[in-house]
Amino acid sequence: MIGTAVSLDVAMRMLLEGAKMTVILSVLSIILGLLVGLPVAIMETYGGKVLRYIAMVYEGILRGIPLLAIYMVIFFSIPLLTGIGLPAFWAAVIGLGIRSSAYQSQIFRSTIQAVGEGQIEAAYSLGMSKLETLRYVVLPQAIRMAVPAWMNEYVIVLKDTSIALAIGIVELTRQAQYLVSITGEPFRYYGLAAFLYLIMVLPLTYLAGVLAKKYGIKGTGGASNVRI
Amino acid sequence: MPPTSESDVLIIRNLKKRFGEKTVLEGVSFSVRRGETKVIIGPSGAGKSTLLRCINRLVEPDEGEIIFDGINVLSKDVDIRKIRARIGFVFQHFNLFKHLTALENVKIGPKVVKGLSDEEAERIAVKALKAVHLEEDAFEKYPAELSGGQQQRVAIARALAMEPDIILFDEPTSALDPQLAGEVLDVMRELAKKKVTMLVVTHEIGFALNAADEVLFFYNGKIWERGEPRELLYNPKREETRGFLRRIADLSL
Ligand SMILES: Nc1ncnc2c1ncn2[C@@H]1O[C@H](COP(=O)(O)OP(=O)(O)OP(=O)(O)O)[C@@H](O)[C@H]1O
Ligand SMILES: [Mg+2]
Predict the structure, then answer these.
(1) Is-contact A30 A154, C-beta < 8 A?
(2) Which ipTM did the prediction report?
(3) In angstroms, rounded to a whole number, what is the distance separating the alpha carbons of residues A32 and B67?
(4) Are A20 and A196 in contact (CB under 8 A)?
């Protein structure tokens, strides 16, 4: 089969199909990561000793395990242990999402802590409760400060979707791999895939700047990138 | 113990606070009558900020009594948020909410804490911003886009919008250059005239002279000397008071 010619048109269609999966996977994962990561960050900064400890352990474990291993655990081990199978797609979303939640919690923890003591004292002095202060003062500021680092995290999640090919997800890299295997032209198809990744990532980098300007708090620096 | 009366908004008796080994308040007693402007002066580290912060319990005092409008502020059953909603606090560094416009900064208290409708909160906020003479084109600006003087006036409006029984000021002009300090002091003088009850920590002797009903000189965590402004500022009895006044006079020359 090696050496089969594939028209550029067909190849592009296959790669774009893969890119679509990459985008869907990354968007669902970053959202899951946000829904879990933000509460974890709140637990770490506002929770009592026990909650704080649980959150730290959660974060530590997920940041300490390679993504591939997280996928293996979710996709292969959990069904073995529980007898409940999980479609590869959802295993990929959950794996990538909870891994991202550990990094997102780190981003939000640092921006929550960066909200000045003076802001909190002003809220308390008006008679706000701790929860109202969190809701109306701390989170709006922390979330805006987090925009640059959060966009950076999204780029990482987008690139890491490629690891999902290990559990059978047909995303961009997997499509390229397939094209290479039938044509024997790695340079061409991996090159095209790389180009498509860049096309997806570069506008995001630009968008990050625009969003930071639009939603950043005037006169306040954004959060520094916490992970390269 | 000072005499108490119906017209006392705030009574402080024998207030004590230590930070570790360091005693910051060593038994402070005084009261503030409704409509009165009381000024506190004193050297850095004397415990002035700590005193103000004890009053709304941003800092927990160790001993003593704070009675606000007849309520024992330090009692365990008291809901401190209800008390804080009735005590304005103006900070040295303004502490405006950075993510909110001037108008939103003033609205948020009535809305969130008092549960007023948006229109009602807005009406009160506009009134408060007018009372501090904030320029209308600054209403929609963010704190970072305002001058220090404007920021502090918004902070005063934020306190006023809660219709507090007393406003505590912690060196409201010491982060401002003299001209901007002037516009803030003008607003505070107007408030004093309107009989808004104020307890003001400041080094602005001019303000103390023409707006204060009484001046307290703080030294080493105690009220070292107190009196009618002209008397205390022109004719201090104690050596430490004289030394302090000489030093700030030197600074302003
Ligand atoms: N949270 C704290 N923990 C430990 N020490 C504190 C704390 N707050 C204040 N102090 C100390 O208490 C003393 C009095 O501080 P305070 O801020 O009340 O003085 P101040 O009279 O307001 O002085 P300044 O004019 O510099 O504002 C200082 O020595 C200060 O270092
Ligand atoms: Mg002070």
Answers:
(1) yes
(2) 0.94
(3) 50
(4) no
